TrEMBL record:
Pfam families: DUF3455. It comes from Friedmanniomyces simplex. This is Malate dehydrogenase.
Length: 234
């Protein structure tokens, strides 16, 4: 993804630079960010995912950075890795989604090659931009906890509703080495009456796929990944 006609990634066209985006924050001018999520458009999956249910509004766009977890049955010579869940820290990129979608599309690939920013210190920029955490309650129940000590955006239990393979040119993994990028997904609330967060799309995934077989793998292992998460609420 590094070059567009010989230009580096931060100059997507001859007249534009993503670095300008960094200058667009308060105090500024007519280029101030709008952060108008009603203008944000989700990227289309290779096999189209169903649209959000009518009546929902896009409440948040986050970059998730973490690991997909797998186990291997070491007693079975032909076993394949079993997905057991994921664990990721979510960072607020709502304004980027609204204002510079082509930059957003590159962030999972960029984030995958960077360490997960430390977010323990409440005063750190990483903590201030942290939307929350994503993990699994059991193998089939992804959970989003969007509450931190700085804000309460809610929590939600989900279930997989639909999936699409990632595009064929998606990254293989960290440093573009590995076994591919996990599926793009649509998740629906497990109990839609009981939570504000209703639907979550995992899009523009980078990395996360396990090897095809368990040969040479340990009983449990993690694969680094990053992704966009588009979170829709009532
Ligand atoms: C996934 O969504 C597509 C498009 O809406 C639909 O045609 C397909 O049947 C869905 N698949 C599943 C497993 O629900
Ligand atoms: C070994 O793994 C293969 C591939 O997942 C599976 O089809 C088979 O049932 C497994 N055998 C046992 C004994 O679990
Ligand atoms: C995300 O960040 C933008 C810009 O800082 C802010 O306006 C918005 O409230 C944040 N939203 C959430 C849900 O964190
Ligand atoms: C898998 O994910 C959990 C969090 O859900 C984490 O604590 C654990 O260390 C991960 N890795 C392995 C190899 O189980």
């Amino acid at each position: 993804w590094a070059n567009h006609g010989g230009r580096p990634w931060w100059t997507p066209s001859a007249s534009a630079s993503y670095l300008e985006f960094g200058k667009r924050f308060p105090g500024a001018d007519s280029n101030a960010p709008t952060c108008d999520l009603s203008q944000a458009v989700m990227p289309a999956a290779p096999t189209p995912l169903p649209a959000p249910a009518s009546g929902l509004t896009l409440s948040h766009v986050a970059i998730g950075r973490g690991t997909q977890n797998y186990t291997c049955d070491l007693t079975n010579a032909t076993a394949v890795p079993t997905a057991t869940g994921a664990k990721a820290t979510l960072f607020n990129v709502s304004c980027i989604a609204a204002d510079t979608p082509d930059l957003l599309a590159k962030l999972p690939s960029i984030a995958l090659d960077l360490p997960i920013p430390s977010s323990d210190d409440e005063t750190s920029p990483a903590y201030q931009d942290m939307s929350g955490h994503h993990y699994f309650l059991d193998a089939t129940t992804p959970f989003f906890n969007m509450d931190t000590t700085l804000h309460q955006y809610g929590t939600g239990q989900f279930k997989k509703s639909n999936g699409s393979n990632a595009p064929s040119d998606a990254l293989l993994g960290t440093n573009n080495q590995g076994f591919g990028s996990v599926q793009w997904l649509k998740l629906d609330a497990k109990d839609s009456a009981g939570q504000v967060l209703q639907e979550v799309y995992r899009l523009n995934t980078a990395g996360g796929q396990p090897p095809k077989t368990c040969q040479g793998m340990p009983a449990a292992f993690e694969v680094q990944y990053s992704s966009e998460y588009w979170i829709w609420a009532q």
